[in-house]
Amino acid sequence: MPRARAARGDRRRQHRVRDRLALFPDGQQPRADHARRVGALYRFGGHDACHHHGRHRRQRRGIVAVSAIVIGKAYQAGLPVYIVTPLGLMAGTALGAFNGFVTAKLKVPPIIATLGSMYIFSAIMFIVIGGAWISGLPGTLSPLVNGWVGILPASALVIAVVYLIAWIILRKLPFGNHIYAIGCNEQSARLVGINVDRTKIMTYALLGFLAGVAALLYVARLRNVEINIGTTIALEAIAATILGGTNIRGGVGSLLGTLLGVAFIRIMQNGLVLTGVSSLWETVIIGSLLIVVLTADALRNRNNPRVL
């Protein structure tokens, strides 16, 4: 009887995997023997897709810093804004792709690759600017954060456009399905025919591009580049994502939840300022919230473990 139940369970999992294969283009459908193996590997956990996240957030601070320096130095060299902007974005994309190459091709664990690159990029920042701020930059980018389009602030439109593009990529394109699949179970993604290494590099490059956008907005708002730029970006990014409902191990997550997590962090920070609490306590509170949420998540998963 136990063997019969196990066999029925295996058949059910195989049928679920075949249904899930509709997420992928026809040209990447696996062979029948692959589908049987995928049935024992693909993690569903009762959710529609698994979010690939948390493996490369530590690189963000270094990329934002270096991209901001590229923008600042380009301005100091007298380059116009239509050249400065793509330079900052290309710098972020290239650095992100480098991290992706180290992780995907050299097989360096993501936490080591991104942590090491963060220190490398930070060292480059100090070497290039010599420990001094880049200040007095022109305000040609300022309309991105201070301007208005009709009755809407330009910064809100920038955020809306970024989230719309991210939603299209993750929900409407095969590339987004591949990201979910790799974050769920990398071996399963390989078995269904996904080019995992290429997808990883493209994902890291995309994150680098978004870090370049963040650097543009940073320079647009402050018109200078500080030596300690992005000190708490990694912590805030992880906290906002986790507070927004994304599981640190994958399997749960949404753009809307992340947006709400970002809003929560910002509202909390503004509230602390208005109540006169020292900004030094922001990191303490954010870190404590992160530990509490992860602890609650671990306890919940202990009581409701995933089933393959």
Count of extended strands:
2
Indicate the overall shape: globular
Radius of gyration: 22 Å
- For the largest sheet, list the strands in their spatial order: 1-2
Q: Provide the β-strand percentage band.
A: under 5%
Which structural category do the helix and sheet elements fall into?
mainly alpha
Ends distance: 20 Å
**Biggest β-sheet description:** 2 strands, antiparallel
How many independent structural domains?
2
What share of residues is helical?
Answer: 55-70%
Low-confidence stretches: 13-54
Average predicted local confidence, pLDDT: 78
Protein name: ABC transporter permease
Subcellular location: Cell membrane
Membrane topology: Multi-pass membrane protein
Organism: Georhizobium profundi
What does this structure look like?
The chain is an all-alpha fold and 308 residues long. The protein contains 13 helices and two strands; from the N terminus they run ααααααββααααααα. The protein is globular, with a radius of gyration of 22 Å. The two termini are 20 Å apart.
